[in-house]
Amino acid sequence: MTTIKIHFNILKKIISAAYKLKRGTYSYENLVSDGLKVLDMLKDAGCKITVKGNENLNGLNQPCVFIANHMSTLETLVLPAVIGKQIRITFVVKESLLNYPFFGKILSMLKPIAVTRKNPKEDYRTVIQEGIKRLQEGISVVVFPQATRQIVFDPAKFNTLGIKLAKKASVPVVPIALRTDAWGIGRIFKDFGKIDPSKPVYFFIGKPLYIENKGIKEHLYIVEFIRKSLEKGDVDVLR
What we know:
Largest sheet: 7 strands, mixed
CATH architecture: 3-Layer(aba) Sandwich
Strand content: 5-15%
Strand order of the largest sheet: 1-7-6-2-5-3-4
Helix content: 40-55%
CATH class: Alpha Beta
Number of helices: 7
Number of domains: 1
Order of helices and strands: HHEEHEHEHEHEEH
Number of strands: 7
Structural class: alpha/beta
């Protein structure tokens, strides 16, 4: 399956989902199912996809803050499917994404936390206030501390926003190391780049961590978990 065909099929699914949502016939379970279909498309294109660590979520009887690195559009499309329908999630996103045709409507269904990325102090207040509300509603929050997509993981650009939200909400954090650069960044449309089957796709889910003191130890652990997972491609690197 070619890049153009994959993106065409995904766009069809997004448009169809938006119309179903408007009619009230599209649910979170449908979103999870569509995410699995996107992963199947990549498999059909020759991508090797690995998901490990879901067992770490067993027994998690409260919402949490997922902290992950951010590489491409792919994780936004498929993380609900990777994590599973038992745990409902939403994202901290750039406000402009909600204005995207069709996709913005679907994203809005998740009750995302929208930030402008123009005023860091205001964005921080928004994430903390709205994040606590989502968590109290039983919705887990995905935070990408890098803010923007980065192929090369730079720990210095990995902020502690997710740690601070989890501490204030008294919920655990769960690290996710992901590699999704098989879905490239496009030259014209950044969200739709070339699909490269030679690059592996993986999602490694770590164990829940409870924040102690200022969360410095937990932050360093998450950074190292992601760094070593990306370096070695092995979920067991810190066990």
